[in-house]
Amino acid sequence: MKVVSVNCGLPLEVLWHGRPVTTSFYKEPVQGRVALRTLNLDGDRQSDLTVHGGKDKAVYCYPIEHYEFWRRELPAVALPMGSFGENFTTEGLPSENAIHVGDRLGVGSAEVVVTQPRLPCYKLGIRFASDGMVKRFLDAGRSGFYLAVVREGEVAAGDEITVLSRDPESVPVSAITRLYLAKRFSEKEMQQVERVVRVAALPESWRNYFSEKLARLES
User: Fold this and answer.
1) Could you state, in chain order, the average pLDDT of each consecutive group of 10 residues for the chain (219 residues)?
2) Distance CA 128, CA 165 (A)
3) Contact by Cβ (8 Å): 17, 23
4) Which domains are present in the chain?
5) What distance lies between CA 8 and its chain's CA centroid?
6) SS3 content of the chain, % helix, strand, coil (to 5)
7) Cα separation, 218 vs 168, whole angstroms
8) Which residues 6+ apart lie within 8 Å of 148 measured at CB?
9) Taking the alpha carbons of 97, 34, 7, 158 in that order, is the dihedral positive or negative?
10) CA-based torsion, 207, 209, 211, 213: positive or negative
């Protein structure tokens, strides 16, 4: 696995449905080594910190393997690196089944941990000029994933990504998304949820959501 492109962007104001919206969705590849800090990469900043950013969403990763799918789905849309708002465009992770919440990874001189899948907001629709893009993104099952920074360091395009350890209770990122969207759980899925909430890297908001959902379904 490796980082194909490191992408950063600062907040900018765009018009959407006739009103101004501030977004940091527009990322561009950067050259050279970039400092990766607890909350983000140097030169990158989130716009709405109530739903974006923070230590559990310091870096958003999106596999380059998904780009071919989207080029078929969106043939008229140019898709340079960073098109999905990702900080790291990665290579070598063909699906979200291949990465688990709680996986500790080494990249450059930094150490990171996988925390959660990406759930798109309406600003994905702004980037692709389509209100329907959020649903298409979810339906495609190609969410990408977020990282928290365990040890700060420097990263660059071309850096290898190595799995340092895996939480024995962990489940794939794809399972987190599926469980989040499920209306009801099978017995197997309930067991997965029970495992998920024990993973230390899962943010508290997700843990609370699954615990409450499990309690409702069990009552």
Assistant:
1) 96 92 93 96 77 85 97 96 97 91 97 96 93 95 96 98 90 93 87 89 93 79
2) 36
3) no
4) 2-167 (2.40.33.20)
5) 14
6) 30, 30, 45
7) 25
8) 55, 56, 57, 58, 112, 113, 115, 201
9) negative
10) negative
pLDDT of residue 47: 58
- Sequence letter at residue 5: S
41, two tokens:
């990469």
Where do we find the tokens 């109530």? 50
* Amino acid at site 196: V
Of 106, 83, 64, 103, give the one whose Cα is nearest residue 25. Answer: 83
Q: How far apart are CA 98 and CA 121, in angstroms?
A: 24
> Distance (Å, rounded) from C-alpha 177 to C-alpha 118?
8
